[in-house]
Amino acid sequence: MADDGMLLNFSIPDSGILNKPVFKGGTWRDRRTAKKAADNWHNKASGRPGGAAGPKQPSSANRTELGERTRRASRSPVHEEPAERQVKRPRVSGEFRPSARQQAEEADFRPQSEANVTKKPGEKQSMSKGGRQIVSSLFSYNPASTTKPAANAEVEDDAPIEPSNAPLTSDLDTFTSLGLSTPLAAHLLNKMDLKAPTAIQKAAISQLIKDDSDAFVQAETGSGKTLAYLLPIVQRLMELSTNMKKSKVDEAVQRNSGLFAIILAPTRELSKQIATVLENLLRCAHWLVAGTVIGGEKKKSEKARLRKGLNILVATPGRLVDHLEHTEALDVSNVRWLVLDEGDRLMELGFEQEIQKIIGNLNNRMKAKKDEASQIPGLPNRRTTVLCSATMKMDVERLGQISLKDAVHIRPDPAAADEKPGDNQDGRTFFAPAQLKQSYAVVAPKLRLVTLISFLKRSFARKGSVMKAIVFLSCADSVDFHFDILTSELEGGAHRTKEVKEVEEGENKQPDAIFPKSSKSGKAQQSDPTKLTITRAVSSVLSPKTHSVRTYRLHGSLQQSIRTATLSQYAKDSEPALLLATDVASRGLDVPNVDLVIEFDPAFAREDHLHRIGRTARAGRDGRACIFLMPGCEEGYVDVLKSDRKDSEAGVHIARQGAEEILKKGLITSGVQKDKNAYMDKATDLQLAVERWALASPARLESARRAYQSHVRAYATHVAPERKYFDIKQLHLGHLAKAFALRERPSGMKVPGLRTGAGRESKAPAKVRGISGPDQAKSRKADLELPEDIEAEAAKMRKAVRAREKFMRHSGMADEFNLG
Ligand SMILES: Nc1ncnc2c1ncn2[C@@H]1O[C@H](COP(=O)(O)OP(=O)(O)OP(=O)(O)O)[C@@H](O)[C@H]1O
């Protein structure tokens, strides 16, 4: 993306040389309003009497807003276009080419000295001294898109697609036909509403029930992998119990009969989710007892639980190692099933060492007890290890080497089962569910925020069309910033003052907070994200008149208890609900009825993207996913989206949406509009409201800046093969700032907690200083205070992120990129 056309808010010189604009067209009332406003502004800028601020300059915020307001006030159905207003606009392209009328309007209300500047494409922006652009309009200077919608998009969109992760429909495919006992199958049907197995369940259950071989289970998101390994274990333990009864060793298996199975998961959330499914399952075998050791509670309570006895244990690797080393009561000599769930994530988070320790410990204890006569008839002689992963990358192969011996590869499609971990290094064995409808929205950086809001407004407009949606963002700061915007009253006027007051007093304004009380003040919350206590609030911006939409936030910097409660409330919410989240919510989480996933910030790697969109379209249900891409190199990512689907070679259709279309649908709600550009006014109003909101308090402004900087730094950490699509050097930093409600240029930002980098010598952006070529890129980095060698810095950051993730995971905290 080029840098020219970056219109930002520069300070007006003390000399106040601006000429007054001439107002023509419109009704006399329009002209009077516009003239009055411009006079006021002119007086303020030049320090003349009559300007309330005297010699003080108006803030850039007020100037910009005034310019916008004045411009809109001058609009009229019959608008004359005087000759002197025919200013040629450079680099206006794509869907937002302003009409001649809009160009004239913009020219009208720019200072005269600038309005007379004619700029041709490719030409440097020449500006007369003192005459400077003051308004960054949403709809001009946006980069051109390189993609086009497919010709028969709508027809293809409605074509029914056979779900790829649904329960099987043949009468022959029942749980009993796979070897599960009648009571267990009846429990699945009557209590858990599960009528038939999915393809991966069919393959895994029939294998694991009859055989003690190790297994590598691989299937797409939402295909029921959890039950695929839990059901055979429960079935085998029920059989053990029957054996014991028959041989009159004991009544049946009881909690103190021994620990037979351990399930390891990478995060506490996932462990809890697995434990909940297991609990439901064990309601038909109440003598079997399951429990968790996942941290987040006192070790003493976990020890007490282990002492009382458990038959199945769900654990995180770090905590289990701790108990293996320090809890005598934990006897693992009878463990005959070990499951490593989300294997790729376990490796990514650096749990290799812990897993090695666990396996070594299990082997030693089993060996030590081998010679003793088993008290449990039917207990297998060897331990079965099951590794579950959606992907088959190198690190999964490594985990396989550590944990598996002569493993059987179990896949839903028996033809693909011959592939071995590592056979396909580019991860192309991992696909999105076939029924998931995917689209991409091409949105210029300046329009990102208003387009996101419009998209969500439209999605939640009719109650029931979307019940649950998830928006993925790149970092925790950005989640907090967007949460605050969506849960605030945006319009100016009466409540604006109230809002400011509340924030300044440290009160949090959300009307419907679920975790409202903490001794910490709102100010403390603002500066320390781990102190945040409010994670749910009604979104006044998104709620239509008929119903309310609740917004939730989730990221790794929140306290564990708050994360758990937030997730559980979101999952249970029976009203329309939106979750703003980082990648902490991307893996394995199973929230019912998620209809829509929006990747507002694209994932850092294709696998993460597939896990994110896999939160919808689960177990055969419908789902939609949309990714926001910026015009230019990001649009190349569409090829990656196409490869998400198994049938991609058949030319699968991925729908394209333009920002214009989204804005129209989301912002123009009442019937036919005479003015086809009415959506532009609405979008501008919305943008101004957001900017006003941010300017109303220093805390908000700081949060916007922090979000902006964290976002840009996160952008630098896309994986190497995908950096051609997400190239930080192509990022238009000035335009992007607008999507964070910032009116000021990025340079000189001081954000507490963030390192400052090189070059702060010049205050004017590169283009204005007449710098181009490599120097321009250099200068742009300096504008943002980014380091000179962004590539090296990005590599360093990626390494640090991994180390940080590992550290955070071990201490039970964040597990995603949380900058700042
Ligand atoms: N046989 C079945 N019939 C209907 N629904 C099922 C069946 N098995 C599992 N489900 C449901 O499918 C959903 C997804 O299951 P699960 O979380 O185990 O998927 P997964 O393959 O582990 O997904 P991910 O890779 O995203 O973790 C759950 O809500 C579960 O209740």
Automatic annotation (TrEMBL):
Broad enzyme group: hydrolase
InterPro entries: DEAD/DEAH_box_helicase_dom, Helicase_ATP-bd, Helicase_C-like, P-loop_NTPase, SPB4-like_CTE
Catalytic activity line of the entry: ATP + H2O = ADP + phosphate + H(+)
Bias (Polar residues) ranges: 518-530
GO MF annotation terms: ATP binding; hydrolase activity; RNA binding; RNA helicase activity
Presence of keyword Cell cycle: no
Domain Helicase C-terminal: from-to ranges: 448-680
EC number, as in UniProt: 3.6.4.13
Region (Disordered): 18-130, 145-164, 497-530, 748-784
Ranges annotated as biased composition (Basic and acidic residues): 27-42, 65-87, 497-510
SUPFAM superfamilies: P-loop containing nucleoside triphosphate hydrolases (SSF52540)
Localization in the cell: Nucleus, Nucleolus
Comment text on domains: The Q motif is unique to and characteristic of the DEAD box family of RNA helicases and controls ATP binding and hydrolysis.
Protein name (database record): ATP-dependent RNA helicase
Organism field: Lophiotrema nucula
Top-level taxonomy: Eukaryota, Fungi, Dikarya, Ascomycota, Pezizomycotina
